[in-house]
Specification:
Strand order of the largest sheet: 6-5-4-3-2-1-16
Order of helices and strands: EEEHEHHEHEEEEHHEEEHEHHEHEE
Distance between the termini: 5 Å
Shape: globular
Number of helices: 10
Radius of gyration: 22 Å
Oligomer: single chain
Strand content: 25-35%
Low-confidence stretches: none
């Protein structure tokens, strides 16, 4: 799994920070979370192909999180995309769909599926499960989690001891199927280890601190949480339904997350060292996101 931060500013671009957008490469797919203005240019610098994006997850519809979407979709179309693109988002997505298809004179000739979601399981496969959770912002807003589903370890020695020949039956057992060996049924649980927990990545979107976020982020490998303000501007955070860096750290601590990555910084701060310090005073394993930062999970 690889995370690429394409934009880490809030509301307004800065010299070093673009509007919010995050790429997750995992399970042979490329997912995009939010799509602020300038995202497609950031993709070029990050050497991440927009044509490989299979799904886009929008946290909410404030301009800094979605205004890169019309250009990105039209560029995909100009480049001859044929593969379906799926876009998820909270209540209001179908209004956004109408706006996108009526903007400019570009006819979109590849399939796009828009799926409006709430607090639910968005998608589940043999490899991963994606969930969404409504959080507390001043418009309908979602957080997202992506959890890797790891198979139990296959105990080769035990399978051989039970008489299973080396070959395709090993794979069948590892995939949860029974096999027959010399008239005897071998069950998967006889040759598999205990359940294994995979990596869990959580993205908060925009939110004030809330219990829903704590529960949703529980036991995260990486929690990516908005950190718009410093503690001295906590009144502005509350007024605008955002979080301070300390708020984000408290969420990470309460949720038993392994690592916290702060993002979505107000441009009022030309230096972000103090944001990091305030968070680390609460939750030590914290770092700041930067545009084009890459993380292997």
């Amino acid at each position: 799994m690889e995370i690429i931060f394409l934009g880490t500013s809030s509301a307004v671009h800065s010299f070093y920070r673009n509007h919010p957008a995050i790429i997750l490469k995992a399970f042979g797919e490329t997912f995009l979370f939010d799509c602020g203005e300038g995202t497609q240019r950031q993709l070029i610098f990050a050497k991440a192909s927009p044509m490989k994006i299979s799904k886009i997850f929008l946290s909410h519809y404030h301009g800094d999180h979605i205004l890169g979407l019309p250009g990105l979709i039209q560029s995909m179309n100009f480049r001859g995309r044929e593969k379906k693109l799926t876009i998820y988002g909270p209540k209001g997505l179908y209004d956004l769909k109408d706006a996108l298809f009526n903007l400019g004179y570009s006819k979109i000739e590849f399939p796009i599926e828009f799926i409006e979601i709430g607090s639910e399981t968005v998608e589940s496969t043999e490899e991963y499960i994606i969930k969404s959770q409504y959080v507390n912002h001043n418009v309908p807003a979602l957080a997202y989690s992506i959890e890797e589903l790891k198979k139990p370890r296959f105990i080769r020695e035990k399978a051989i001891e039970l008489g299973v020949p080396v070959g395709p039956d090993f794979g069948r057992l590892h995939n949860g199927e029974e096999v027959e060996v010399d008239g005897k049924i071998i069950k998967p649980e006889q040759v598999l280890g205990p359940p294994r927990k995979g990596n869990k990545i959580v993205y908060s979107g925009d939110t004030t601190p809330c219990e829903e976020m704590v529960e949703f982020a529980k036991d995260s490998t990486i929690l990516i949480h908005e950190s718009t303000y410093m503690n001295e501007d906590a009144d502005k955070a509350e007024e605008n339904f955002h979080s301070t860096s300390s708020d984000a750290a408290e969420i990470a601590k309460a949720s038993n997350s392994k690592e916290l990555i702060l993002t979505h910084f107000s441009t009022r701060y030309t230096k972000t060292d103090e944001l990091l310090k305030e968070a680390k005073d609460v939750f030590e394993n914290t770092r700041l996101a930067k545009d084009f930062m890459r993380i292997d999970v």
